[in-house]
C-alpha cells in the first residue's frame, strides 16, 4: 500500500489539510488540528478518512456524491502514520489529549476496517493520551460493527473513547431528509448509547449542526435520550459547497459565538451537558473545519474564490487529471 501525499495546506499552529493519492488513484483527505492557544502536547486532533467518498448524500456535507468503497486497514493507518511521523517519528506521542477522529471522508460505521485499526492503535503508538472518536449517523444493518465496537471499547478503551451520533434535528422525519439513508431510530441509538456509556467514561454526544428552520426541541430529545448518559454538542454549519447548494444556513454564527447560548439554554434546562464547538475562523480558510478540498473544482490555499484546484495539483505532479469527491486524481 502506497499513500502519496500530493498536497498540503494550512498552518501547523492551527490546522493542516493533507491530500493523499492511493494506489488506485483515489484521492482522500486527512487533517491535523490544534485548539489555540493550546499546544500540541496538550491537545492534538487527527481526522482521518475511512471511505472513498460516502454513500450518504447529506445536504451539509461535501464527501457524498462519489463513493467507491472503504479504505483498508493499512490505508487508514497510513494516514495516521504520516501525520504522527511528521512530529513524533519515534511513535512516542506525549500529548495529554491525542484524539483520532474517524470522520473526514465517510461514515466510519460503513467500514469494518475501522475496527481493525482500533485494535491496532494501542500497540502501534506509545500514546498515553490516546482517545479514538467515532462519529456516525448510525446506519441501519451495521449491528455487527456496533457490537464489535462495544467490545473493543470495553476491552481497550474503558475510560477514553468518544462516541457521537449525528442527529442535527429532534424530528425523526426531518432527520430522514437531512441524512438520506436508512439509519437506526432514536430509540435504537438511545439503547446502544446507554450500553456504551454503561462501561464508564465519557457521555455519548448527540451532534447538532443546527440549520435555521429545522426543529430543535430539547424536551422532545429528553423523552428518549437521558441527560445522565448523553451530552449535546452544537456546531455551526460549515461553509461547504453542499450546504450552499442546499440553501441551508446555520443557526449558530461563528462570528457571534455568544448567540449560541440561546440555542444551548433549553438543553441545559433539561439537564444536558452542552458543548458548543466553534472552530477557529482561520480553519474555514484552511479547509480543515469541513468541506472537502478534493471535491472543489477551484480552490487555492484553501480559498474558494481562487482558481487552482486538486486537478491542477495532481496534473502538476504527473499529468493525471482528477474528478470530484473521491474519484481518481
Describe this structure in words.
By secondary structure, this protein is of the alpha/beta class. The protein has a single domain (4-282, 290-317), classed as TIM Barrel. The chain is built from ten helices and ten strands. Strands 1-2-3-4-5-6-7-8-9-10 form a ten-stranded mixed β-sheet, sandwiched between helices. Strand 5 (97-101), helix 2 and strand 6 form a beta-alpha-beta unit. It is globular, with a radius of gyration of 19 Å. The model is unreliable at 297-325 (pLDDT under 50).
Mean pLDDT: 86
Helix fraction, binned, reads 25-40%
Gyration radius, rounded: 19 Å
CATH fold field value:
TIM Barrel
Instruction: Give the overall shape.
Output: globular
CATH class descriptor name: Alpha Beta
Low-confidence stretches: 297-325
Count the E strands: 10
Beta percentage is 15-25%
How many domains is the backbone divided into?
A: 1
Provide the CATH architecture: Alpha-Beta Barrel
N- to C-terminal separation? 17 Å
Helix and strand sequence: EEEEHEHEHEHHEHEHHEHH
Short description:
The protein has helices spanning 73-87, 113-124, 143-156, 172-178, 186-197, 218-222, 241-246, 260-269, 281-286, 310-318, and strands spanning 4-11, 15-21, 27-33, 43-48, 97-101, 130-136, 162-166, 204-209, 230-235, 274-276. By secondary structure, the chain is an alpha/beta fold.
Structure keywords:
329 residues; 10 strands; alpha/beta; TIM Barrel; ten-stranded mixed β-sheet; 29% helix; single chain
Amino acid at each position: 500500500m502506497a499513500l502519496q501525499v500530493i498536497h498540503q495546506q494550512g498552518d501547523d499552529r492551527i490546522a493542516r489539510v493533507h491530500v493523499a493519492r492511493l494506489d488506485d488513484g483515489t484521492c482522500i483527505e486527512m487533517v491535523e488540528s490544534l485548539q489555540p492557544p493550546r499546544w500540541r502536547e496538550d491537545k492534538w486532533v487527527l481526522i482521518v478518512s475511512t471511505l472513498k467518498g460516502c454513500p450518504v448524500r447529506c445536504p451539509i456535507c461535501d464527501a457524498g456524491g462519489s463513493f467507491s468503497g472503504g479504505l483498508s486497514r493499512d490505508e487508514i493507518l497510513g494516514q495516521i502514520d504520516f501525520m504522527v511521523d511528521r512530529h513524533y517519528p519515534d511513535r512516542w506521542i506525549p500529548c495529554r489529549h491525542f484524539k483520532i477522529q474517524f470522520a473526514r471522508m465517510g461514515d466510519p460505521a460503513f467500514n469494518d476496517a475501522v475496527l481493525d485499526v482500533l485494535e491496532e492503535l494501542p500497540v502501534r503508538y506509545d500514546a498515553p493520551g490516546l482517545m479514538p472518536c467515532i462519529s456516525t449517523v448510525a446506519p441501519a444493518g451495521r449491528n455487527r460493527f456496533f457490537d464489535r465496537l462495544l467490545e473493543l471499547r470495553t476491552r481497550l478503551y474503558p475510560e477514553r473513547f468518544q462516541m457521537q451520533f449525528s442527529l442535527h434535528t429532534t424530528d425523526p422525519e426531518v432527520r430522514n431528509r437531512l441524512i438520506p439513508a436508512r439509519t437506526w431510530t432514536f430509540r435504537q441509538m438511545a439503547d446502544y448509547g446507554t450500553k456504551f456509556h454503561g462501561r464508564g467514561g465519557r457521555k455519548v454526544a448527540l451532534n447538532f449542526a443546527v440549520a435555521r428552520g429545522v426543529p430543535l426541541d430539547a424536551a422532545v430529545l429528553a423523552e428518549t435520550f437521558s441527560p445522565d448518559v448523553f451530552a449535546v454538542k452544537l456546531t455551526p454549519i460549515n461553509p461547504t459547497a453542499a450546504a450552499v447548494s442546499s440553501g441551508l444556513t446555520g443557526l449558530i454564527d461563528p462570528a457571534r459565538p455568544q448567540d449560541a447560548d440561546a440555542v444551548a439554554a433549553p438543553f441545559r434546562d433539561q439537564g444536558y451537558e452542552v458543548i458548543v464547538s466553534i472552530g477557529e475562523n482561520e480553519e474555514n480558510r484552511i479547509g480543515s473545519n469541513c468541506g472537502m478540498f478534493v471535491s472543489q473544482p477551484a480552490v487555492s490555499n484553501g480559498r474558494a474564490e481562487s482558481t487552482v484546484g486538486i486537478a491542477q495539483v495532481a496534473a502538476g505532479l504527473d499529468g493525471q487529471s482528477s474528478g470530484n469527491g473521491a474519484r481518481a486524481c
